[in-house]
Design a protein that fits this description.
about 250 residues, about 40% helix, single chain, 3-stranded antiparallel beta sheet, alpha+beta, 8 helices
Length: about 250
């Protein structure tokens, strides 16, 4: 059972330092507590696969710390901007998330302030961990998930939003209820050339560990044919070229 802390008791609790991580600044913590209240957050839940100074959290990155929380009775993921982050606000990331949500990708945006981002809480496993738990009898399930993931990446390509981290997607794709979910849009851009499909394909089939994990479960594509299909898609991200890539991968 996760430890819960009412928002009004957060400062002074063992997790209070996360409001101003990593500097432990009381004035900053008080300001951010006000943002949490304004957004309607009622409870913080201490749980997750990562640990900061003995406190379990959902995630930790260069921009923020992600906690489980509740908005009244609704579970949410709560991202708190790090004091040493290379940006002054989380509002731009929220804008990228809105674009992704517009094509049914990413956790749903719930709310945002300068230092707080509220999102749908996705309960699942990181993609690499999920693949490690599969056996050859799960080959059809893996093919379906890869195909779904490529479809989501393709929608981002068409929307003009480059995720930016999918070529090393260890902590950027989760599988929840058999559905792949792309998360963490803090490095996204609408200016860069989009490479979401090609990045995911490179991660799944050229990253050594992922390739070995996938290869334990399903037949791997021939390298030359895959590179040719990826080059074709890169020349123009059409549905037809995505289909050709899926054929090479044995997904269709």
């Amino acid at each position: 059972m996760a430890e819960t802390i009412p928002v009004d008791g957060l400062i002074g609790s063992r997790a209070g330092f996360l409001l101003s991580y990593p500097s432990h600044d009381d004035a900053v913590a008080v300001e951010r507590l006000g943002e949490l209240r304004d957004l309607g957050v009622t409870v913080i839940e201490l749980r997750g696969p990562h640990v900061i100074e003995g406190v379990p959290v959902l995630g930790k990155g260069h921009v923020g710390v992600v906690l489980a929380a509740r908005l009244g009775g609704r579970p949410v993921a709560l991202k708190v901007r790090r004091v040493d982050a290379d940006r002054e606000t989380l509002e731009r990331e929220a804008g990228y998330l809105r674009v992704a949500n517009g094509v049914s990708v990413g956790p749903q945006l719930v709310g945002v302030s300068r230092n707080i981002l509220l999102m749908e809480l996705i309960e699942g496993e990181y993609l690499a961990d999920w693949v490690r738990g599969l056996v050859p009898e799960n080959a059809d399930i893996l093919r379906r998930v890869i195909g779904d993931l490529l479809d989501r990446a393709h929608r981002l390509d068409l929307a003009g939003l480059d995720h930016g981290e999918l070529s090393s997607a260890h902590r950027h794709v989760m599988v929840a209820g058999g559905v792949p979910r792309i998360i963490d849009f803090e490095s996204a851009s609408t200016v860069r050339r989009c490479s979401n499909v090609t990045s995911i394909a490179h991660y799944m089939f050229f990253n050594r560990r992922m390739r070995e994990g996938v290869g334990r479960v399903m037949e791997l594509p021939e390298r030359g044919a895959l590179l040719e299909a990826l080059a074709g898609y890169k020349s123009g991200p059409s549905g037809e070229r995505l289909g050709a890539l899926k054929v090479v991968l044995g997904l269709e």
